[in-house]
Amino acid sequence: MISEKMEQAFCDQINKEFYSEYLYLSMQAYFERLNLAGFTNWMSVQIQEEHAHAIGMFNYLHERGGKVELLAIDKPQTDWKSPLDVFEHVLEHEKYVTSRINALMDVAESEKDRAALSFLDWYLKEQVEEESNVGGVLAKLQLIGDDKHALLLLDKELEARVFNQPVIG
Ligand code: OFO
To answer: In the chain, what are the domains?
Structure first.
């Protein structure tokens, strides 16, 4: 049985993962408006990943005999100045999520919940990957600057991203 403190911390993180999904859906809508199909695709894959992260914790909490309480999801930002502005926001958000996973692991440590720590290890590795992927796109956007032709080439490249259902835990 999972402790109440751990249960609450998981519910809070489930909410953060759903918020990430919501934020990236809003970013997808922004890219749809710009007719950038590759960036739109990149976001749609990201949305599926965030959904999988939330459901992974949702399932885990049930597996541990916990109660899932779904919290209200905040309204995400709607507009950005440019694709570069979007990806700066994504990186900042992912760093924040990494800090929340670390905080969740701190709770697991204080609760002496080794099972939760081992489960959360996957999320920590995933955050390293997420920050690196986002950082890669951001670096290209910084190089591109105001070059519209280069932006369209990057858009084409991002069309190739596909979603692979992760095996969590
Ligand atoms: Fe769930 O990793 Fe991004 O936020």
So the answer is: 4-71+78-158 (1.20.1260.10)
Query: What is the percent of the chain with per-residue pLDDT over 90, rounded to a whole number?
Result: 99
Q: What is the Å distance from ligand 1's center to 97 Cα?
A: 6
Distance 9 CA to ligand 1 centre (A): 16
Closest CA to 77 of 29, 133, 11, 114: 29
CB distance 17 to ligand 1 below 6 Å: yes
**pLDDT tier for residue 67 given thresholds of 50, 70 and 90:** very high
Give the pTM: 0.97
Which whole-number Å values give the CA distances from 38 to 34, 96, 126, 154, in the listed order? 11, 25, 22, 8
